[in-house]
Write a structure and sequence with these properties.
58% of the residues lie in helices and 1% in strands. By secondary structure, it is mostly helical. Solcar repeats lie at residues 240-326, 334-419, 431-519.
Length: 525
């Protein structure tokens, strides 16, 4: 087209993933426009016969060699800065750091060929999801109206003229570098190939659609608030939607815990009282509770368990945000192990702040009829008879339990999420209700299973003074005593009712969360 500005991106970059100019296996049609580096005229998804592995490998190696400036077989930040500059792609140092951190699996500060290929493949998948989320008309092109609509959905209002400027001209990282135009053919629309060519070696992490759809700790409440906090998009922060998500999550947790409180109390009773000589079963436990205190006794300890949701969630979220600032400059810089570190520290701070409420919850669940008139009376009795130190019994095993719980829960959830995104996310990152519930249930179950022995020891230490004749023992001594008298199985007393409540807890919290979101005016995308 005469007078149209052309992309300054090299053909080697723009056609790197497939010799026909389209991403291998992509279901996105480009509407007839071919890539600037495409070797063929087909701009849609290509057949396997045109994308042989040997040809793809050759093109990837060619690009890798062009970027490997010092010829040491690995790409560092300097290599990327110089190599991409020679190809007409100018990225800021922060962008280059994100690229290296995203693909650096062995943490040596550079990308070898295998890491580079894996980064490109994963990156292209994310780009396709972003493109499809913007393509409201599903015609394989993004126009100004679709950009306006997408931003309005996130609470950001711009004019169509401003959207056209976004389409027409997007500047690369350095202000002194050349300007790259995404809309290469001057049609005021962007097809898939133009979108991919421009962003191929530009970091895209934690894309808004994935963050929006795959919230975990905010939605699912299984009674243990030890999970790593969820991320929120920039738009959710700017529009104030983040606190509505937290409120909805808190309300969902309150309903979920109340509905599963009988199972939770049975778990506590089995953790403290069950043994080889007192083999308490589920039916027998419920019968014993109802005989001793009536049906209402099934909910003992639930009040304090619900009350602690708000302070714990608020403290953990604020601590997490502050810790992230020390670890990385923004949320996109945090990798899995960094999120785990920040989340575990935030969880430790939150648990330390509300731990006396944890002790009260255990004592209220174990109390006999008429023993205490309420939570305040229970607290006064503990303070008068046992002193302030009693409110921190079991503190050490509780803190130690955060790491295996949060770590395994996060690792399993992220693995399941990424597996689903890689295999099934073609048009949207939305996994649907059942996939989301399944991922949340599996990850929570794995996290609880790993940390359960520590949780049992914590509960027994919290209950020591409430059990007649129970000796004052340390965490180490209690572990030895349980293993000696009950064996390894003794560390998993109460596991059955604990697992029985996971599926109903996850399901109830999800349904309530979605309804509260609508009530609070949070749009589901």
């Amino acid at each position: 087209m005469p007078g149209a500005r052309r992309s300054l991106a090299s053909p080697v970059v723009s056609g790197v993933l497939c010799p026909c100019g389209s991403p291998h296996g992509s279901a996105v049609e480009s509407g007839g426009s071919s890539s600037s580096g495409g070797g063929g005229g087909n701009a849609g998804s290509c057949g396997r016969s045109l994308c042989e592995a040997s040809e793809q490998d050759r093109r990837l190696r060619t690009l890798f060699q062009k970027l490997d400036v010092n010829r040491d077989g690995a790409l560092c930040i300097h290599d990327l800065a110089v190599g991409l500059g020679r190809l007409g792609l100018h990225r800021s140092e922060l962008d280059l750091l994100k690229i290296v951190k995203a693909g650096d699996k062995d943490l040596d500060g550079q990308l070898d060929f295998e890491e580079f290929v894996h980064y490109l493949q994963d990156h292209e998948k994310k780009l396709r999801l972003v493109f499809k989320s913007l393509d409201k008309k599903n015609d394989g092109r993004i126009d100004a109206q679709e950009i306006v609509q997408s931003l309005r959905d996130l609470g950001v209002k711009i004019s169509e003229q401003q959207a056209e400027k976004i389409l027409k001209r997007i500047r690369t990282g350095h202000f002194w570098g050349p300007v790259t135009y995404m809309d290469k053919n001057g049609t005021m629309t962007i097809d898939w190939n133009e979108w991919r060519d421009y962003h191929l070696l530009h970091p895209v992490e934690n894309i808004p659609e994935i963050i929006l759809y795959w919230k975990h700790s905010t939605i699912f409440d299984v009674g243990e608030n030890l999970t790593v906090p969820d991320e929120f998009t920039v738009e959710e922060r700017q529009t104030g939607m983040w606190w509505r998500h937290l409120v909805a999550g808190g309300g969902a947790g309150a309903v979920s815990r109340t509905c599963t409180a009988p199972l939770d109390r049975l778990k506590v009773l089995m953790q403290v009282h069950a043994s080889r000589s007192n083999n308490m079963c589920i039916v027998g436990g419920f019968t014993q509770m109802i005989r001793e205190g009536g049906p209402r006794s099934l909910w003992r300890g639930n009040g304090i368990n619900v009350l602690k949701i708000a302070p714990e969630s608020a403290i953990k979220f604020m601590a997490y945000e502050q810790i992230k600032r020390f670890i990385g400059t923004d949320q996109e810089m945090l990798r899995i192990h960094e999120r785990l570190l920040a989340g575990s520290l935030a969880g430790a701070i939150a648990q330390s702040s509300i731990y006396p409420m944890e002790v009260l919850k255990t004592r209220m669940a174990l109390r006999k009829t008429g023993q205490y008139s309420g939570m305040l009376d229970c607290a006064k009795n503990i303070l008068a008879k046992e002193g302030m130190a009693a409110f921190y019994k079991g503190y050490i095993p509780n803190m130690l339990g955060i790491i295996p719980y949060a770590g395994i829960d996060l690792a399993v959830y992220e693995t399941l999420k990424n597996t689903w995104l890689q295999r099934y996310a073609v048009n949207s990152a939305d996994p649907g209700v059942f996939v989301l519930l399944a991922c949340g249930t599996i990850s929570s179950t794995c996290g609880q299973l790993a940390s359960y022995p520590l949780a049992l020891v914590r509960t027994r230490m919290q209950a020591q003074a409430s059990v007649e004749g129970a000796p004052e023992v340390t965490m180490r001594g209690l572990f030895k005593h349980i293993l000696k008298t009950e064996g390894a199985f003794g560390l998993y007393r109460g596991l059955a009712p604990n697992f029985m409540k996971v599926i109903p807890a996850v399901s109830i919290s999800y349904v309530v969360y979605e309804n509260l979101k609508m009530t609070l005016g949070v749009d589901s995308r």
